[in-house]
TrEMBL record:
Keyword Endoplasmic reticulum in annotation: yes
InterPro entries hit by this protein: Longin-like_dom_sf (IPR011012), TRAPPC (IPR007233)
Pfam families the UniProt entry points to: Sybindin (PF04099)
A single cellular component GO annotation: Golgi apparatus
Provenance organism: Gigaspora rosea
Name listed for the protein in its UniProt record: Trafficking protein particle complex subunit
Length: 208
């Protein structure tokens, strides 16, 4: 199982990502092929990994029209199906595309829950047969998302602690840290990364 933590700013940009590989089989993005537990962090300002497009090409106008057409027909079901496949052991999607997909799923489900319940804080988590997504949003619009195995209890308090104990301490209070993250500059703070990594690895649920 791979644990993934994403932090999105109020502009929907992923500004921090870290994953923990637990007994991963092989391959995948940014991964270790060895059994055991390792962690990987990355800022979100790099270029997409790219890949083979199958030799096809299209004009910018055609691509924009096609993208708009596809976006208008995306459903919650298709997003969840894509996300479920993404978190299997053989993920091929790159980190930036993964973050966009995760945010899309979160936004769709959050809006759905808000409409049904009228509660702005009603969306907490959702679970599939492969993983469970936990969600926490701050009053300033930061969104914390972590994916775990399906049997994990709610980690919303854990995400709140990551924000209050580490993000505020090492990022918000850091006079050298940027106020915003234009273009997905990302959080590049080694103290924050190390603190989050240690904190999550020491959670009882992580070793279970």
């Amino acid at each position: 199982m791979i644990y993934n933590l994403y932090i999105f700013d109020r502009h929907c940009v992923c500004i921090f990502y870290i994953d923990w590989h637990r007994h991963r089989k092989s391959g995948g993005i940014m991964g270790s092929n060895n059994a055991g537990t390792t962690s990987t962090t990355t800022s979100m300002n790099g270029q997409p990994d790219g890949g083979d497009s199958g030799g096809s090409s299209s004009s910018p106008a055609h691509s924009a029209a096609a993208n708009n057409h596809l976006a208008s027909h995306h459903s919650t079901t298709s997003q969840l199906t894509s996300a479920t496949s993404m978190f299997s052991d053989s993920r091929l999607v790159n980190i930036e595309e993964e973050a966009k997909l995760v945010y899309g799923v979160v936004r769709t489900l959050r809006n759905l829950v808000n409409k049904l319940s009228g509660n702005q804080d009603g969306f907490i988590s959702y679970r599939t047969s492969n993983y469970k997504l936990h969600y926490y949003e701050t009053q300033t619009g930061l969104k914390f998302v972590i994916n775990t195995d399906p049997s994990t209890d709610s980690l919303r308090p854990v995400l709140r602690q990551i924000y209050t104990n580490f993000f505020v301490e090492y990022v918000v209070k850091n006079p050298l840290a940027p106020v915003g993250h234009p273009g997905g500059e990302g959080v590049n703070n080694e103290y924050f990364k190390a603190a989050v990594d240690k904190f999550v690895k020491n959670l009882p649920v992580f070793d279970s």
